[in-house]
Amino acid sequence: MPRWSINIESAVQCLEDHWLGLRRPHPRRLIRGNGVSQVNGASWPFRPDQAESDYCPRCGSSVGAGEYVEGKGCAACRRRRHPWQRLVRLGRFDGHLRDWVHEIKFSAWDAMGVELGGILGRALLGCGAQADAIVPVPVWAWRRWRRGIDHTRIIAGGVAQVLGLPVVGGMKRRGRPPQRAVPASQRRDNVRGAFSMRRWHGLRGCRIILIDDVTTTRATLTEACNTLRAAGVESIIAAVLAVTELSRARPAPAPGESCGEPLIEVKGDGVPLAPLIGSPERPAHQRVDSGASL
Asked: pLDDT tens digits for 1-17?
């Protein structure tokens, strides 16, 4: 290729990147820390959380040194039973990870979804996850059409590339208000009965990995797992990109208990979307103010 054509191409890319804002940096460039923050010019690599040292593999909550006890979980989940074998996450729903999830979900950045899905897949490999299929938590059809992306399926596709497993869309979802618009104490009721199985799901007797983007109260994951269990699925590993941190006035009650209070959410919902790290600030019409959805 002639040198002059390469120079023209570089000039066009520079114009698109820095003046028009039409191009996004490659996801791997941001994740590996080669993107530059507009705040202070610093760059740093994204480091996924480690099970047991950073978070509880039973419930996904953040833990400190000595807070997780093998076989029993952490203080947040020792009295609770979950329909999944373990929960794998990449990190807390804040900072860069929150921005990237927003870009996937509300700006249809499928390349970032695949990239983060690949990192989640490697985290699953690291914990020795064994499965026959990958199942994304379904998105309501109207919401998929409006956003222009099936974000959980995109993330599941990134996981599948690493694990070499099929992605099976075996569930469907009824329309309900988004979880981020519902108080934490009402999210279990909001999602109850929202999922059903497709006739051709073919998941009976299978070990599956259930994929979602963000979880807050675990209500959506629990309802999806219960639907899968009722359909004859043998075992479930839940895997998410991020977990919204909660503040607890007192431990949340386990299903069937009459004492205690529900989890109280203190951050993650209604947080304005910050400009994408490493890219020009987006126009006002492209900004969203949505937080964690689950």
From this structure: 455 555 666 665 555 55
- What span, in angstroms and rounded, lies between the C-alpha atoms of 244 and 60? 10
Q: What is the pTM of this model?
A: 0.73
Q: For 153-221, give the secondary structure using H, E and C.
A: HHHHHHHHHHHCCCECCCEEECCCCCHHHCCHHHHHHHHCCCEEECCCCCCCCCEEEEEEEEECCCHHH
Maximum pairwise Cα distance, the chain: 75
Angle, helix 110-126 to helix 95-107, in steps of 10 degrees: 130
Residue 69 β-bridge partners: 73
DSSP H/E element including 143:
helix 141-147
* Residue 251 host element (H or E): none
Q: Which amino acid is at 11?
A: A
pLDDT, tens only, 184-228: 777 877 778 888 999 888 899 999 999 999 999 899 999 999 999
Residue 284 class from Cβ within 10 Å (0-12 exposed, 13-18 middle, 19+ buried)? Answer: exposed
**CB neighbour class for 255 (10 Å; exposed up to 12, middle 13-18, buried from 19):** exposed
Domains and their CATH numbers in the chain: 3-286 (3.40.50.2020)
Comparing CA positions, the residue from 214, 211, 219, 213 lying closest to residue 184 is: 219
Q: Are the beta carbons of 90 and 79 closer than 8 angstroms?
A: no
